[in-house]
Amino acid sequence: MSLHFFSAAFRPADEAERQQAVRGIAPIAADDAALRDVLEETCRILRTPIAMLTLTDGDVQRMVGVVGMPAIEVPRAIAFCSHTIATTEGLLTIPDLRADPRFAANPLVCGGPRARHYTGVAVRIGPFPVGALCGIDTRPHGPASFRQRADLRRLAELAARRLRADAPPN
Asked: Which of 34, 69, 86, 159 makes a 20 to 30 Å CA pair with 40?
């Protein structure tokens, strides 16, 4: 018998402040048309069947919006987006999750939804990465191109504006 491990993401140094920014986000309706447009455009740009906008909230990752699969909540320890918000550049592309030792034994790779490819970019409220906009596929891809990365960053800003639009006034 062999043991397989996956790597949980480190928490950002400013986790307490980041978490306050997450708590300031008001819920968004599941049928929000503007968010759906952003998610569908994400699928088109990344050529993935799944796109989601996530919030990393304490020890869980919540899907604010998703296309291509049912919305679920996952433990932060297994969420790919947790790695995205912890990166310096705020962008993470994994061409083949099974070939990457950080993710090969991850339950989202080994079990449902059997993810093979991930590309995500941090969604920021002010200076804080509150979650990510990402595309996922069940087959490997090459790494995201420069153009795809730029387009994904543009869409992440649109998603951030949508999150701020519903935020309560200070």
From this structure: 86
